Amino acid sequence: MTMSSGVPARVETSETEVLITWGEAGTTAAGLAEMLSTALTVALRSGVPAYPLVEELLGLRFVPHGRTGDPLVPFASSVADHVARHLAIRHLTPEERRKLGVFVAADSPWPDAYTQAPDA
């Protein structure tokens, strides 16, 4: 994925692991992404519920932000927001996602609504 600023980022989640790749190896961004990946992975493996993790990261705004190139999360307000949305999709129920304002095409009778940019 490349955010609107042109900074490459990739987010992958599984039941017990979060992988975030952001920026070039050896940069501050890459180190911070690896640190967040490790912290979230340890939390999930230790039994921390995903809901509070998602709740804290969701909506954080910083560069890079915008289009992601990721079909699951086409827009994000930051890399942290992108990660939160991936965790929500993988770990939360549709009801929990709705409560947090995380919508995916599978939850909607209007799947095309999630392929358009939100109003700024």
Automatic annotation (TrEMBL):
Keywords assigned: DNA synthesis, Nucleotide-binding
EC class (word): oxidoreductase
Pfam families (UniProt xref): TSCPD (PF12637)
Protein name per the record: ribonucleoside-diphosphate reductase
Enzyme Commission code: 1.17.4.1
Domain TSCPD: 15-88
Catalytic reaction list: a 2'-deoxyribonucleoside 5'-diphosphate + [thioredoxin]-disulfide + H2O = a ribonucleoside 5'-diphosphate + [thioredoxin]-dithiol
Family affiliation: Belongs to the ribonucleoside diphosphate reductase class-2 family.
